[in-house]
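Reviewers asked in the last cycle whether our approach scales beyond single polypeptides. To address this, we selected a multi-component target totalling 569 residues and predicted its structure end to end. The input consisted of the following lines:
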Amino acid sequence: MWKHRNFKTLIFSLPAIVVYLFYFILPIPMSLFYSFFKWNGFFSSPMIPAGLSNWVSLFKDTIFWKAAENNFLLVVISILIQIPIGLLLGVLVSTKLKGMKLIKLLYFLPMMLSAVGIGLLWEYIYDPNFGLINAVLNFIGLGNLTHGWLGDPKTAIWSVFVVICWEYIPFYMIIFAAALSGIPKELFEAARIDGATHSQTFFKVTLPLLTNAIRTSTILALIGSLQYFALIYVMTDGGPTHSTEVMALLMYKQAFRFFKTGYGSTIAVFMFVLSLSLTLVTLKLYRRGREYEV
Amino acid sequence: MKYSIQLKIILYISAVIWLIFSLYPLIFLIQNSMKTQWEFLTTSPWSPPSKLYLTNYTDAIKGGLLRGLLNSIIVTLISLVIVLFIGSMASFAIARFKAKIGKGFLILFISGMTVPIYITLIPVYIITRYIGLYDTLWGLIGPYVASSLPVTVFILFSAMETIPKGFEEAAVIDGASAFQIYWRIILPISRPTLIAVGIYDMVHYWNEFVYALVLLSSPKSRTLPLALWNAHGMFSMNVPEMLAGIVISLLPLIMLYGITQEKMIQGMMAGALKG
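The resulting structure, written as structure tokens, was:
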């Protein structure tokens, strides 16, 4: 029907392609290029060829490995804690009980708030002197448990993780609620007529039907795990003593605080390669899973 | 399914527990944002404010948040209009012309979906300084639009691809140009998807922090999250005023959510689920 289809496609896509190539694709080889130099990022300063020295430093940098470990920890906890709770809440808000629609709306609220606002709010909740948590502990007579939650290397990462749960569990909840709404009611009816108890229905009917949603959530947790930045930047800045460091934050600090543009780029490239491999692996797993289902 | 009384009670109790965990931090926030500093330090965090002390709000606004609010509105709206316009044009071309080159473009966009923006951060900073847009609102728009094009194009493409051919065939015979078909036929049909993606992109722009942190420096150009962060550095001693600032920064989206409700959830999820 259309003439000159290639040409027309090019014209219509041109603005998007140009912006995308310029600001999103071009930076990828640029980062790779910078990773072979020592440079402070200022045009007036020379870029000194550094061979693979940035890469060698990266693999020797214990702080970097601490950051990588924290990223990994956050994925594991996301999968083990956030997804199960999200699933339970998803099932809960999908029951036909009165008020659940409103409850679902309220649950989702933290999801759309800015990381900076959330981070600052929780900083005041955790505050050792006038924070909410310590005030509650004092009030119920557990004053000896009060703590500088974000200031202690032992508790900081867990305190951050609670906030991550607070923000993202509703997200998983909606995934499961959406998946459940797509399941025909007859299946549950049939289980009930056959005399299944609620827990039997949950484990034998609901859970197997949510396999796909569980897989999707896991993939999103995996791929999203490299994106942690603003919340941690605001709450702890990676401290105390790097106990809450994550890769994106370390990359930012190296490049924009210590002016090690080359080294920062090296971390960025590492993150890129990691995300690429994660994507390819999950894509493969996802395809295989789908083949079995259909 | 029928629920026994016991089960109902258990379900409601669990629901309330999560409700408290989920919402009490926000109630704490609003309550204490209306206390004087003295009252905040001398009363318990859960006591209601003795009277509505709104000076915190006016002070927070005077302290730089107003500028941030305006800047955020400008950047969000301009980026949103641009990304929806150029994104939908590209999606239209890829979905309807079905040319070879279009397939290539689609793959290019899709492969950007899981790329962490941090890989672009240093080069974008250097490019922005090089072209003289550092510390201007204009400097943010390019990276904002580019980073949300993958999701935007993918979702719009998926929707536009399912529109039956018959819709445009008649128009082509009547001599309509490709742009007219895009603007008059395909775009209006895709409106629900356009709204869903638009919500996702808008929330993303409104809350965006990393690019703003790297590409802006002076108070006049700060967006709201950055202005809030900066206020924290300067007035962190006055907690109630900071809390008021946080409320101000969160309020626009909460209000929008109050109006759009399910639509907003759908939009946010459409963007996040993409694949």
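Chain B has a mean pLDDT of 89. We regard this as preliminary and will revisit it once experimental data from Aim 1 are available.
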